[in-house]
Amino acid sequence: MANAIWTEKYRPNDFSDIKGQDDIVSKVKAFVEQKNMPHLMFSGPAGVGKSSLSIVVAKKLFGDSWGQNFLELNASDSRGIDTVRNQVKDFARTRAIGDVPFKIIFLDEADALTREAQQALRRTMENYTKTTRFILSCNWSSKIVDPIQSRCAVFKFKPLKKEDISVITEKISKEEGLVIDEKAKLALFEVSNGDCRRLENIMQSCAALGKEVNEEIVYSLASVAKPKEVNEVLRLALENKFSQAREKLLNVMLEYGLSGLDIIKQIQAEILNLEIDDRKRMLLINKCGEAEFRMTEGSDEFIQLEALLSQVVLVNIK
User: Fold this and answer.
1) 241: which of 39, 150, 167, 262 lies 20 to 30 Å off by Cα?
2) Which CATH class is domain 227-317?
3) Which residues on adjacent β-strands are paired with residue 137?
4) CATH class for domain 6-156?
5) Residue 73's beta-bridge partner residues?
6) Strand-strand pairing, 39-43 and 152-156
């Protein structure tokens, strides 16, 4: 297992392994214990346990035969109506193996299904209720048509909290023999942003460089600037040192290989930590939004970032 991808190596096999979603897990576990459940919809950001919980449900319901009774499809790869009409229907029309009266079809990234495919899926869910249960996973439940939502019990997942990320970090570091200092643990939480998959990928990258993990390694491999460096850029601008702030910003972007859109999100987060009054803070957040919009529309990112820095200088002069 030394060369395994850690997101697979540490995928949960039991309800207790899924962190940060206790309320959802307890309800889904009750369905499994009764060997009866409605169609389910898991909605929320990436890397918070939606796919893992779906697989745990299948393993607990079907035991060793879970592979024969569980069909996993990624809707972003097969997003057309033919997928629903062929693969889904072919699997749904056959009976389950074992003492559970239904099989499970897991549609990951269901919000990528076309509207026509969703309408076909709605009829399939209706027609094969006796033999099949669906679990739909999506980032945005609003992109799923209302008739499908009304057929499902909807559970909204949330990003993992700091204590949950800490538990996962401790478990992996213990099993892999990593030495992670406190600053590195804080950095891992900040760069993962509550995403367990991202946490595991960054930790595996750090482990490839050595058993000792520090703050520098985490930020460099995550392609994220240190918050204190971004804060220093803003502080220089607030002190009316525009040229120094501009130079520092460019150095940070080059050192960490950041795009304009990457750094502006960090600038926005650090504006909230500046020691300025709320009115100035709101003005700067507004300017961040303008700069980000222009970048996404194709404007030159360096010009937009320089313009944003000039606004940081001016807000303290006015």
Assistant:
1) 262
2) mainly alpha
3) 42
4) alpha beta
5) 107
6) parallel
Contact of 137 with 106, CB cutoff 8 Å: yes
CATH placement of domain 162-221: 1.10.8.60
The residues spanned by each domain of the chain are: 6-156, 162-221, 227-317
Angle at 218 (CA atoms; ends 200, 220), nearest 5 degrees: 125
Distances in Å between the Cα of 253 and the Cα atoms of 35, 99, 193, 235, 266 are 53, 58, 20, 17, 11
Cβ distance 245 to 233 under 8 Å?
yes
> pLDDT tens digits, the chain, 318 residues: what are they?
445 687 777 788 889 889 889 999 999 999 999 888 999 999 999 889 899 999 999 999 988 888 888 988 876 655 556 666 677 777 877 787 878 889 998 988 888 888 888 888 888 888 888 888 999 999 988 899 999 999 999 999 999 999 999 999 999 999 889 999 888 999 899 888 888 889 999 998 888 888 888 888 888 888 888 888 999 999 999 999 999 999 999 998 888 888 888 899 899 989 988 888 889 999 999 999 999 999 999 889 999 999 999 999 998 775
